[in-house]
Amino acid sequence: MPGKSFIESSILVEGLGRIGDLALFVVEFFKKFWRRPFEWRETFIQMDEAGSKSFILVSVTGLAIGIVLSMQSRGTLARFGAEAVLPSMLALSVFKEIGPVITSLVLAGRLGAGIGAEIGSMRVTEQIDALEVAALRPFNYLVVTRVIACVVVFPILTIWTDMIALTGGYLESVLASDMDYRIFFNSAFSDLRFSDLIVDTLKTSVFGFIVAIVSCFLGYNVRGGTREVGQAAMAAVVLSALLIFLADVVIVRISITMFGGV
Amino acid sequence: MVESQTFSGQHRPPHSPSESVIRLIDVTKSFGEVDVLKGISFDVSTDSSAVIMGGSGSGKSVLIRSIVKLVTIDSGEVWIRGERVDVLDGHDLDRVRLGIGFLFQGGALFDSMTIAENMDFILHRHSDLDFADRRLRVEEILSWVDIVDKIDQYPSELSGGQKKRAALARALVLEPEIMIYDEPTTGLDPVSVRTVSELIVRLRDEQNITSLTITHDLECARIIADKVHFLYDGRILESGTLHELQRSGLPELRNFFGTSRF
Question: Which residues of B have a CB under 8 Å from any CB of A?
């Protein structure tokens, strides 16, 4: 069907065009990152926006992860007489994978939508043009600051979520088997290596970069009105989540190659 | 030649009346297959108030955006005060832009900031004034546009006319020698149309600010225009005084003036 293939090919061309635009946006970021003006104040404001205002959200998420993971695993481990390895299993799961990925996804939902909508509405109301004609370098002010903020804040919030999740697991263990906290935490950290913690926590900086750059890109390039701003916000969350999963696979593969598996 | 004073009390050097402040030579711009500007040429002389009129989709907004390089032209030349702008970039472009104030159609006020912050944000980055002096300048300009009582309010708390005046105040904060107005009276009630139009005239007469305005509002054009260029289908169809254009026998002009708001 010639019509269908034409549509498919135009979607493909448009998709490839968007990927190309995103790649150019990333290149632009690295070019502008080194150049004045450095918007330190705005960067700290964005860190506060991304960090302290996400604090309760990631704390609740972490607590729920720890409690549920502990409850779900206890029965299975008990059947094999391996209940004692629960803290260790919980710590490995949380620190190596569940904590970083879930925290990043939760933050992608909150920050990705927020950044996409905020920058998108600034675009359609000509606020970005107003920055441009006032010689205020909107890319530095809006994009570079948000990307730096997310790169810094994601690992910090991930460590916090990991600790809360582990605490949640401990609380569940206390309720279920009255486990002593020293035994729980000694066992939890016994199988964790420092390299695991570093790589698996710092990979969230990459996730933060992805969320911020994708959301800024979609917001910055909005054309149209409020409908398109909403679409940009939604696309920011969806695309960020997909790219987080993709990046996770690549980073885990590289980390296993470099540092070995558990 | 009249010498004038800026808001900060500095004397603006007198210009020769024949000096061309804005000059466009054979400017073209296309978006995909659509030719929006098809060889635009005109001059705006010192301390004058030029108006570009035309119907929707005639290319007015693209034209004035190309003057401050918010839109990159395909061919032709744009000159501001003897400097070719369309080939400038980076700091050179910033330097030229800082001499131009731009009033956007919707105001484009930064909605997360108060009116004072909107103005101080620009002033702080482009002047050596301390906070007290900056505040004084902000108050002085807001008094001039008669909304000093709104200084600490957010844009969302202002009426349409007040927003336009606040945006005008922000555009004036760096004391530009040229003002560009994008539909300054669109969406305003007749009283606000007159108020904003008279402010534009006062800026020309009291501050020797050269202005270029795009509008389809006849009342606004009648108050502010020294010379009117009529844009039709990407071309300047006719230039002259408003009176001359209204007497023109061209069917496009007759049709436009017959349907325009008076």
Answer: 65, 68, 70, 93-95, 97-98, 100, 102, 104-106, 108-111, 121-122, 125-126, 170, 174
**Considering only CB atoms, which chain B residues are within 8 Å of A132?**
70, 97
Q: Please give, rounded to a whole number of angstroms, the shortest distance from the CA of A17 to a CA of chain B.
A: 15
Interface pTM (ipTM) of the complex?
0.88
Q: Which residues of A touch B93 (CB under 8 A)?
A: 135
Please, which pLDDT band fits residue A77 given cuts at 50, 70 and 90? confident
Hey, where are the domains in chain B? 20-256
Residue B60 to residue B186: CA distance in whole angstroms:
14
Tokens 């970039």, located at residue: B89
pLDDT digits (tens, 9 = 90+) for A106-145: 999 999 999 999 999 999 999 999 999 999 999 999 999 9
Give A52's DSSP letter.
Answer: G
Cα distance between residue B174 and residue B131, in whole Å: 15
Residue B227 phi, psi dihedral angles, 5° rounding = -140, 140
Provide φ and ψ at A242, rounded to 5°: -60, -45
Distance of CA A88 to the CA centre of its chain: 25
Task: Collect all residues of chain B within an 8 Å Cβ-Cβ radius of residue A129.
Answer: 65, 70, 104, 108
CATH of domain B20-256: 3.40.50.300
